[in-house]
Amino acid sequence: MDTFLEVIDAIALFIEVLGVAIIVGGFAITSWRFLHHRMFHEQRAFMHYRHGIARALILGLDFLIAGDVIKTVIIANTGQQVATLGVIVLIRAFLAFTLHVEVEGHWPWQDSRYLGAADGGRRDSPERER
């Protein structure tokens, strides 16, 4: 049983490290692209930069949540640790939710096809295609 728990702990740690690597790598790649853009002072280039960082954060947070869930549910499932996990997951889910709204320009439950996603979802009356 100890070997099983060690393997699960190693898997959870690997998933968490992968999440951190995604965040750091996404930030580095997006920053490099932004700084090497011919006209990085333009508003459009800055918005691409912000969206790239937000996407890396969202994906990295998903991996971090998965690692925490695996570690807490299988390895350390005391009441206090599960409560701590719940708070951590709520905070990370809230961050992912707000980042999604920032990047996509609409609520997650809204269909972007009907919001004019090409123009940032800023239409007052979306046209529905049927």
TrEMBL record:
Coiled-coil annotated residue ranges, if any: none
Domain of life of the native organism: Bacteria
Keywords for this protein: Membrane, Transmembrane, Transmembrane helix
Transmembrane region(s): 12-35, 56-76, 82-103
Cited InterPro entries: DUF1622
Full protein name: DUF1622 domain-containing protein
